[in-house]
Write a structure and sequence with these properties.
Helices cover 56% and strands 0% of the residues. It has 118 residues and is mainly alpha-helical. The radius of gyration is 16 Å and the shape is elongated. The two termini are 21 Å apart.
């Protein structure tokens, strides 16, 4: 959801929960304009915090997943990296640094797959 905000905004779509938009006093039109004010950064912080919590919980359950099915957890590596990148740029989803996929992502995914750690 977070990664798609700028792309969806270019197409005139806002997929953010209305309750969060209201709580942070962010209008749909400001999201569509691509303005990254403090309210939107706070909203993204809340979403990223929830995502991180869910990711941590899923990782804690990874030991109960059969070995042959653990490869299905591989996207968690990418999600973790994206959440970390968002945190480092102060939750600004319109920062140009987020628009490009990290060049090392494929190698990192391969490394995690070989180590069977997600």
């Amino acid at each position: 959801m977070i990664r798609g905000i700028p792309i969806n905004a270019k197409h005139g779509v806002v997929n953010l929960p209305l309750e969060l938009l209201a709580n942070h006093k962010v209008s749909q039109s400001s999201v569509l304009r691509g303005t990254s004010d403090q309210g939107l950064k706070d909203l993204i912080f809340d979403l990223a915090s929830q995502a991180h919590h869910h990711l941590t919980h899923a990782k804690s359950l990874a030991h109960s997943v059969p070995e042959e099915a653990k490869v299905a957890l591989l996207p968690a590596v990418s999600v973790h990296q994206h959440l970390e990148r968002i945190r480092l740029i102060d939750f600004d989803v319109y920062n140009p640094k987020l628009q490009n996929r990290p060049h090392w992502l494929a190698a990192k995914l391969w490394w995690h797959k070989m180590r069977n750690k997600y």
